[in-house]
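@channel sequence for tomorrow's demo:
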Amino acid sequence: MKNPWYTCGGCCPCKCKPWVYWVLSTACIVTAIVAFIFAILVKTVFENSFINGVNDARFIDNTVQTTDCSNMFVGDSTCSGLAYQAWLLNSTEARDMCLSSQAPSTRPLTSSSGWCDTKQEGCVKPDVCLKGMPHDFFAFNVTNPAEILRDGAKPVVQELRPVHSAKTSDRIEASVDVDKWNNEGIAHWNESNTFVFADKDETDLLQQKIVVPNLALLSTVTRSGVQLNTIEIIQMLGLCGTYQRLANMVISLIGRAPASIVSVINARFGDIRSAMKAQYFGAGLTRLLGSQEIDIEAMGPMLRIIDPTLDTSILPPASMAIDYFAYAFGCVVKQDANHSCKFNPDSQADVDLERRINGTFSDTSRTNIFDFIMNTNFSDTTGAGSTLVLLLRGLLSASEAAAWSAHLNYAGSYGLSNYNVMRYSLFPFTNSTSPAYDPDYEYYPRFIKMTVGQMLGWDNQAFMDKFTGMPISFGFAKPVINGAPTEQYRSSKIPDQRGLSYFRMYNGQTQNCAFDPDCMAQDSFKKDGTCTANAVCTPNYAAGWDAKFIPGTLNGKGTDEYHKKDATAKLFVGQIFSAATLKNIETNADWRGVKVDVWTLADIDFRNENCDGSDPNHGSRGIDCDSPYETFNLGYFASPDPSTTQIPVYASLPHFTMVDGTSSRPNYRPSDRVTIVSCTGDSACEGNREFSVNVLTEPISGALLDGQQRLQLNVKFPPTANGKTGEMTAEMLMPSFWLNKHQSAFDFQLSTVKQIQSGSSLFNTLMGILIAIGSRCNIGPK
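structure tokens (generated this afternoon):
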């Protein structure tokens, strides 16, 4: 039985006892008011505080504020002075702090060190405690260099399993311009970097010997305003010097020949030197003495009559096509199985060929060429090179220079690799019977054998070239001690959220002038590498995001500019001092339980301006106008002296992966001219491999959650002789190595991301509940 008070004689208690009604009504009204107030607070003050905390934690407005700056949700992460102290943490300190069982004293230190409690899911130490920024290096080894040099074969390069490394960072506190930071919001600092093994010791991988193109001798130099390829100069001068020695030997031998032979030669040519001139231009001597054979090898039996001890192997092979200008006019393609290249007077084709050959050079040009060959001191390479340029550019007609250059390059290219007399005289360390022999020079000068460590510059390793005396290395893993300064915007007060680590200086430069020939033509560039931008000079600028953040939405309080499909963002890539454009291809995608925006590489700022030369006001053609498709010319930027030397280095995506819709010129595809064999023996070599640049960002904060910056460096390999066809091969790019700079959030870090992403929903849900409570209480008792 219910209490009479409750039943109130069968009536509502509020009616028989009015004071109960007023108590309950008052309670409901108060509850409703409180609920509405809390609902407003939840949606305004609390959510704003939460979003402001997320926002402020991304910036470092100053270097000093350490108190009265905490946020109720993210704690002291919003204290710029504490964040600055964490920013100064070097890689060793960060890892030691991460490995510690004791939590860091501040949240910024926790974030910078990657510290976590091992009780947390996914916190497995030392796995989560990185030694630095992960970098994986994949080297390439040319597996068929002999066939390339002899037959012009298509290169086959083997990708090696990667060296897993980490790039350490040590920002030098004394170099930080704190006044600039505090007053302008610009971080200015110097730092030291070294590469260490990411996990286990992989010295064995660094010590692997690989065959790679020779950077030093494949470079292009500028002399007196004329661009010359170093290897071509060596081919030309080496060939001429070899013919000089060969001619002098033959002249000496024939001078000792029976008088009957000498008289025949003198009657035909005037003297023996003139006979060697006729041999060079028309195979005159061997055709006279060798039954119409037009290659100098055919002179061997006659010379053996004069000197039975003569080693006829010193004579250039017919396939070298040094005589009768066989490459330029077709002799080599007529060779039979015995490499015979015999003139047939009954063949109209041979007669026509001879007529064309005889009409190639004027008598004056023949004299100038032969005098250069016989009178030049080729041990003075500088003087000989200057005289050669003068001859090609000033004393020969354009058609004569083209024909002679074609001959010199074909015969010189073949001879440097296959004619030992020429090869050994220039490079004695290539002779396996010589005490000077070095197997690292087996395929010199176009290829060298070096270790992976030397190629990367690991611990300052380099290949010391015996011919040039130069250290050869790409230097990508070379230690940097107190490097040139870098500047980034770091303050929330910088417009357009550029305070999220937006570059304004890299390696001491706000701009680099080595990407525009018109900039390099300025006197200041020749003096100290600087230039002044103008109507025709457009340097590359250090400008773009650092990929740590792409501005986020902040739940409507930030920007939606980047949080939409097909949005683009510019990232600055320091290794190539250029900007890369990323495109958002999917928003709010699910990745390991969190929402992400998916970005991929859309384009690089290729320098392909005014390629057709139609705009005289735009200056010179861009340096990428002739770059192979989707490759980026680094020849001047990476050069030790860009005013005089262009090294043959081009950047691309790994394995020459293509990106649709780029602004690259549609030149030849480098992947068509080389065969790449993928690596084995490492998880990074397995499965469906990805070679593009991909970045995943958290939409609210814009923070990087996962990213790979992949870059391949390639060497331009100039045409070489094909001894089978008598033709030059096509220019090509040979991959040297590629790197994957990558970073990915650990599971325990994703827990924080989930809290950020659930924060908005939580506040909205809580506000809805409070409003519902308030509304229900407002109804009151009836």
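heads up for whoever presents: The chain has three domains: 81-132, 133-214+472-745, 223-441.
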